[in-house]
Structure prediction request, 244 residues.
Amino acid sequence: MNAAAVVPAAGRGERLGPGAPKALRELGGVPLLVHAVRALARSRAVTLVVVVAPADGVARVRALLDSHGAGGDEGPEVLVVPGGDTRQESVRLGLAALPPEVDVVLVHDAARPLVPVDVVDAVARAVDEGASAVVPAVPLADTVKQVGPAAAPGLPEPVLGTPDRSTLRAVQTPQGFRRDLLLSVHEKALREAVDATDDAGLVERYGGQVVLVPGHEEAFKVTRPLDLVLAEAVLARRRANDEF
Ligand code: C5P
Prediction:
């Protein structure tokens, strides 16, 4: 297996509040993106990491990775390419930078800095063992409601139904794919102007089979300010444990 990771890191992260692009916000003094690249580099399956940076931030991201020792001097090679207006476009631009020998692609959000290496390995292994699209997932803590539009702005939204929670999963990254499959669904989506919030969603849309492996609670996505507080706590616990 020759696996590369594509790391979309070009989002602005507006739900996190004003400031630097989300991937460059710091966690324990280190940018989220650097944590994410290190997490991927810990997996022996990953031989190359393609970071997709904000289009106007490629040089800054390259310098940041190098200054934190995550630029590829040790471990997998790290490329930095410019991203696009949507996550899907950023992933597509990352895929375009892959050398021909890569046959497995792991797509991992920079916004999931604390993914344990066991999750990365489990996803890569499942692809290696024959699955063409693999997603790490966890059960839902909350019950989920399907809603319709409010009758007028400011009025409460009507609930349309409650899907059986035991049949639902929250999905994480890295999501792993056979390279040829991922390229073909991204090309179709581009032609048909289809947008999805995750890569596996494109595979499903075009009739491919996606399978799940267990995710991990520490692979959560840093989206809102409270997520940063939680991430700091997880990191502090890891650092404390490492000292013993
Ligand atoms: O916005 P959201 O949290 O879903 O973004 C998930 C990941 O996709 C983040 O790592 C973000 O940096 C990335 N992204 C991107 N290009 C965009 C939008 C989001 O690479 N235009």
